[in-house]
Design a protein that fits this description.
Layout lengths: L12 H4 L4 H13 L5 E7 L7 H21 L4 H19 L2 H6 L3 H18 L10 E7 L4 E6 L1 H6 L4 H14 L3 H19 L15 E3 L1
Parallel strand pairs: 1-2, 1-4
Antiparallel strand pairs: 2-3
Length: 218
């Protein structure tokens, strides 16, 4: 499992890989799975959390801090200082509520934590943990958090050398940063397929049961 910052603006998931480019990803998954009994799923989420608390939290902190200079260095009454705080809080809450600013207010560590939690949630929601032989692999990208991760079930994770998933994610996100989003996904799928084919050739488990199409979560 690994993550990497995606160096591009954060559009909605349905425009991150627009139709018909998503068909290339689906075709790449189908081609890779012909050579293995493992399962590959690709998921793109617009965001892993709304972070709606962030604008109010920061607006409240700034409004509280803004009152102290008025208290210590002016003769303004407490009532007017309170009104000033309310105005600051309301204005900043409105300004910070915009989507780009809202994400900037959230620490990177928090966004990574939320995105990873969403990735694990999707791994379970897409039934990758139920694959025969425990050979499911998921590519997960959360656009707003600029986060990418590969999760592999127990059987394949034990056989793949440490750092393999990191390398694949690094290559994928490098292409995404260049604006070659679909190429990044297709290449990642192909490399995952090679590892699956090496350790779990066709016939080692029942036929594929999971969907090959790119899963988009808006």
């Amino acid at each position: 499992m690994t993550d990497r910052r995606i160096t591009r603006n954060a559009p909605k998931a349905h425009t991150f890989i627009p139709t018909p480019d998503d068909l290339r990803v689906s075709e790449a998954i189908a081609a890779a799975e012909k050579k293995t009994s493992g399962e590959i799923v690709a998921v793109v989420a617009s965001e892993s959390d709304t972070y709606l608390y962030a604008p109010f939290l920061w607006a409240a902190l700034i409004a509280l801090a803004a009152a102290w200079p008025l208290i210590y260095f002016t003769w303004i009454s407490v009532q007017w200082i309170y009104v000033f705080q309310l105005v600051v809080f309301v204005l900043l809450s409105i300004i910070f509520a915009s989507r780009p600013l809202r994400y900037l207010l959230v620490p990177r560590s928090v966004k990574i934590e939320r995105a990873h939690a969403r990735a694990v949630e999707q791994f379970l929601a897409q039934n990758l943990h139920t694959t025969a032989g425990r050979t499911g692999v998921m590519i997960f990208v959360s656009v707003a958090e600029r986060y990418a991760e590969i999760l592999a079930d127990a059987a394949i994770h034990q056989k793949v050398p440490e750092g393999t998933w990191q390398k694949i994610v690094d290559e994928m996100t490098a292409r995404i940063g260049e604006g070659r989003v679909t190429d990044g996904f297709v290449t990642a799928v192909g490399e995952i397929g090679l590892h699956l084919a090496e350790h779990f050739p066709p016939g080692a488990a029942p036929a594929h049961t999971l969907s090959n199409h790119l899963i988009v979560l808006n």
